[in-house]
Amino acid sequence: MLFVDIVLPVFLLIAAGFWLEKRFAPDIQTLSNSSLYLFTPALTFSALVKSAVELSLAGDIFLFMCLYTLLLLMLACGVGRAVQFDFAKRRALAMSTVLMNCGNFGLPLVYFAFGAAGLGSSILTFVMFTIPLSTLGIMLAQKQSTNWRGSLINTLRIPIFHAVILAVLVKGLQLQVPELLLRPIDLLGQAAIPVMLVLLGVQLAKTRITWEYGYLSLAAMIRLVLAPLLAWGLTRALGIGGIPQKVLILQTSTPAAVLPLLYSLRYGTRPDLVATAVALTTLLSAVSLTLLLYLL
Fold it and tell me: Alpha helices of the chain — where are they, by DSSP H?
């Protein structure tokens, strides 16, 4: 029943986006901008304002993000060297395994699994992992030296961070948001989860598949098997328990992220392999995430 109640609704919405792209070829940039600048910031603000998330938890999740990203990056680079992948293929493997789809896929999955109880932790996880997604992802895709400072500044321009800062100020100053503003923000936020999944389906429908079985086996193993084990170990080591622990494990065990695919296309870092890894891990995650939900 976990598959039917939690995982299947996610894939049905992805399938709807896949069908929409094949049938009508919508403007993906408009969908993406609507999600980035309206729906997701609204969901972030309303969820954080209404939740009882403690500042210490944000610190724990930030530390988890740093350690998790670093260890996975070391693992992916080490495995790539051990099997003698060339430079571009090692970078592609890192992009396909270190950076997960904790937004478009992870937020809806956690919401279906834990409801409002897990939404605050899920939003924080999404926000924290946007940092490596928007910085490390670009750096892995580029073949030349990269400006870390410029990448970080671009990350801080993402509207999600503005929504977090505003929500922290509102809660810190104990301000009451007028219903006149909170209701439309809530309504916009409710659109975020279905739009995220439809957008993922649209993006997958545009993916061109390249079957290179050695690379894909490694990418799927690291992203869907080793990554959950690492998340479990780190949450135990950091003393994170309860719903936040389950949210962190589940949300960071999602398939390869789509955003690095755009980076790899921009810089020519084996986009064929990254695209196939995104599609394959998304399909296989129907099994891996169902098993993980049973364990959690």
Answer: 2, 8-24, 28-34, 40-50, 55-82, 87-97, 106-114, 119-134, 136-141, 148-156, 159-172, 179-190, 192-205, 213-221, 227-238, 242-251, 259-267, 271-295
* 136-194 pLDDT, tens digit each: 887 787 765 556 666 666 667 778 778 888 888 888 788 888 889 889 999 998 888 88
Residue 210 CA neighbour count, 13 Å, CB half = 9
CA angle 233, 247, 3 (to 5 degrees): 105
The token duo for 252 is: 């960071």
Whether the Cβ atoms of residue 183 and residue 64 lie closer than 8 Å to each other:
no
Alpha-carbon distances, residue 117 vs 77, 114, 217, 293, 295 (angstroms) = 36, 6, 35, 16, 19
Q: What pLDDT, on the 0 to 100 scale, is given for residue 221?
A: 96
| Residue 84 DSSP class | T
CB atoms within 10 A of CB 64: 23
Give the distance, in angstroms, between the CA of residue 21 and the centroid of all CA atoms in the same chain: 21
> What dotted CATH number matches 2-295?
1.20.1530.20
Q: Are 281 and 263 a contacting pair, CB within 8 Å?
A: no
Top-confidence range, 44-53, 109-118, 127-136, 155-164: 109-118
Instruction: State the Cα–Cα distance between residues 36 and 47, nearest whole angstrom.
Output: 16
> Closest Cα partner for 251 from 210, 215, 292?
292
CA dist 19 → 8, 44, 152, 195, 245 (Å)? 16, 28, 36, 14, 35
Highest mean pLDDT among 16-25, 125-134, 257-266: 16-25
At residue 100, the 3 state secondary structure works out as strand
- At residue 154, the pLDDT reads 63
Whole-number Å distance between alpha carbons of 16 and 204:
11
Domain boundaries, the chain: 2-295
Dist. CA 220–CA 294, nearest whole Å: 20
